[in-house]
Write a structure and sequence with these properties.
The complex is a heterodimer of chains A (254) and B (363). By secondary structure, chain A is of the alpha/beta class. Chain A is built from 9 helices and 10 strands. In chain A, the strands form 2 sheets. A 6-stranded mixed β-sheet of chain A has the order 6-7-8-3-9-10, with helices on both faces. Chain B is of the alpha/beta class and 363 residues long. Chain B has a 4-stranded mixed β-sheet with strand order 2-1-3-4. Classes of the chains: A alpha/beta (254), B alpha/beta (363). Chains A and B meet through helix 2 and helix 3 of A and helix 1, helix 6 and helix 7 of B.
Chain lengths: 254, 363
């Protein structure tokens, strides 16, 4: 990372749902053109934080700037320069993928060629399929295609790999890296630490609405080792997932 | 941003998507088109020929005589010529035959024929009609070449418009089609969009809420009106549905249909807001549609209802849509003539949208 211009800056973000304090004073920055991971257990406030940045949810207090625009006053301008993939979002019923992409192009006010968008996520041969007929991995790839329609500066991916088989997961990592390599900033949440380690340039650990650690995966691991931590079991040169991939092949199962 | 964001484009993209979705949704097509058309076909055939009397010709009856020829010419009598005696008796008892007729040649000369009629108590009304038909016929046949001695009745009938069953049924079915498309369709789609987070994903785009509602409304109104037009055209060409002023009448009916569908969609918005789960939508929708379906003069004139029921009928919006449709289509009324009906629908519309604004949920 030579260029470290912050594209998202979150300062003292607080969100209360009635009595429940979902987010309690989060502050962090996401740099341009990095893959930034928000990690943490369920209910830690990852999705809430993400949805506040995406302008989908109001905040209780704090300041959020996206590419210099304030979520309080410039929500519509922000929406035009971000792409959002929601956890478990559905799509308009009875439409095929091409028609859905046409709909989103209209919603974003841009002209795109649906087949080109599908080609980006390798779903050309599913052009006439309905969303609900897709496999889990294909659904996530399609969701990502809808986030790319408006050529966004930032895409937000909320648990994109949850529930996918190892091939589909790796395949999605490649896609996400590719999006970043094309100059887009990626903010991602995940429960899988191997994924974060492999994919993310920097990660923030969120626990009970607070950030408890933020750094590059490498640095965080080094810090832990420096504190005297040792794994109970000797680490082998490969793990069971490597065995799985080695046995079943790397190609997509869809 | 190279160009400013265009809300019209977003609205139209939504309308297009929604219209595609509706045309592929089996329930929308069934409620908007199939059900109304089935009712129209059924009632169209029932009501097609007016009154018919079923008369059996007794076995052994004379066949070549002026009485039978005259009977067949009346157009009112359906004469069955080769049924067995046993079958005739059975059907007379059930009232499936209104009478059995036996014509004998008089071997003694004049009158040339005896016409023996056996009526059945199972079908007294039709029997009475047959009696007067036969008397009239006998009189005509007997007075051939004779000058009347006392009086000659010179009856003329002015040619009025034939009011067929279809003229009553079709506007009612049109109303039913608009009601179910408006209520069920709107309730289901907004509930589904909310439940499956489709709307949430829309909110992550720069689209306005008003564009979402408007796009959806354009598609649904468009579909309902195409359905209405289709029903009117089928009714007119296949079942002689009366369109008194032709194209103008169709236009007026479409205007009424538009008012109707907009009001009914208001009910749909309310239902989508009230429903806690997908399975509660049909019962809530039925509470709204079924009473109107039965009490708003869809199948029977509300004048046929008991007096205590009529005020309820006269409170329902569909009653006024049906009423206005019939006046426009059959009596040739223009929209100003049915202003009272339109006004009541508009009042309903204002009321229901006031409730919809309170109950509608986006998330």
């Amino acid at each position: 990372m030579t260029n470290k211009r912050p594209i998202i800056s979150v300062t003292n973000l607080v969100k209360h749902y009635g009595e429940f304090k979902a987010v309690q004073g989060l502050s962090f920055e996401v740099y341009e053109n990095e893959i930034f991971g928000l990690l943490g257990p369920n209910g830690a406030g990852k999705t809430t934080t993400l949805e506040i940045i995406e302008t989908l949810r109001s905040k209780t207090s704090g300041e959020v700037l996206v590419d210099g625009l304030n979520v309080d006053t410039d929500a519509n301008a922000i929406k035009q320069l971000i792409g959002v993939q929601l956890q478990a979002a559905g799509y308009y019923p009875n439409l095929n993928l091409v028609e859905l992409l046409e709909l989103f192009a209209g919603l974003y006010g841009v002209s795109v060629t649906p087949m080109e968008m599908l080609a980006k996520v390798n779903l050309q041969d599913k052009a006439k399929a309905k969303y609900k007929e897709l496999s889990g991995g294909q659904k996530q790839r399609f969701s990502i295609a809808t986030t790319l329609i408006n050529s966004p500066k930032i895409v937000f991916l909320d648990e994109p790999t949850t529930g996918l088989d190892p091939q589909a997961r790796r395949n999605l990592w490649d896609l996400i890296s590719e999006i970043r390599n094309n100059g887009t900033t990626v903010v991602i949440t995940t429960h899988y630490m191997d994924e974060a380690e492999q994919l993310c340039d920097r990660v923030a650990f969120v626990e009970a609405g607070k950030i408890i650690a933020l750094d590059t995966p490498d640095q965080l691991i080094d810090n832990l080792i420096a504190s005297g931590f040792e794994r109970k079991k000797e680490v082998k040169a490969a793990n069971l997932e490597d065995v799985f991939i080695n046995l079943t092949g790397k190609e997509w199962r869809e | 941003m190279s160009q400013p964001y265009n809300h019209t484009k977003a609205t139209l993209a939504l309308a297009k998507a929604s219209f595609r979705s509706i045309t592929r949704s089996p329930s929308a097509v069934i409620f908007t088109l199939a059900f109304p058309l089935i009712f129209i076909v059924v009632f169209g055939f029932i009501g097609g020929g007016g009154m018919k009397l079923d008369v059996a010709l007794a076995p052994g009856s004379d066949l070549q005589n002026p009485v039978i020829t005259a009977l067949e010419k009346t157009g009112v009598i359906r004469l069955t010529k080769n049924d067995t005696q046993q079958n005739i008796e059975k059907n007379l008892e059930k009232g499936a035959y209104d009478a059995v007729i036996n014509i004998e040649k008089n071997p003694d000369g004049l009158p040339a024929y005896f016409t023996n009629v056996k009526y059945t108590s199972a079908s007294l009304t039709n029997g009475n009609v047959l009696k007067s038909v036969l008397n009239d016929l006998a009189h005509q046949l007997n007075t051939v070449n004779q000058k009347p001695t006392v009086t000659e009745i010179r009856a003329t009938t002015i040619t009025g418009r034939l009011h067929r069953t279809i003229d009553f049924i079709l506007p009612g079915q049109l109303g039913f089609s608009l009601l179910s498309t408006g209520v069920f369709g709107t309730a289901f789609i907004f509930f589904a969009l909310r439940q499956n987070l489709v709307i949430k994903r829309f909110f992550a785009t720069p689209v306005r809420r008003s564009s979402i509602v408007l796009g959806e409304a354009i598609a649904r109104i468009g579909f309902a009106l195409l359905g209405a037009l289709f029903i009117i055209i089928i009714g007119h060409f296949a079942f002689n549905f009366t369109l008194i002023n032709g194209f103008v009448t169709v236009f007026n009916m479409i205007v009424l249909a538009t008012i109707g569908i907009i009001v009914f969609m208001g009910f749909g918005f309310v239902v989508s807001g009230l429903a806690k789960s997908e399975s509660t939508i049909p019962p809530i929708s039925n509470i709204i549609t079924l009473p109107q379906f039965l009490l708003s003069g869809t199948f029977f004139s509300i004048n046929a209802f008991p007096t205590w029921l009529q005020p309820i009928s006269r409170a329902l919006p569909l009653t006024y849509l049906n009423d206005a449709m019939r006046k426009v289509a059959f009596e040739g009324a223009n929209l100003w003539d049915v202003k009272q009906q339109i006004l009541i629908m508009v009042v309903w519309g204002i009321g229901i949208y006031a409730v919809a604004v309170k109950t509608f949920k986006w998330e």
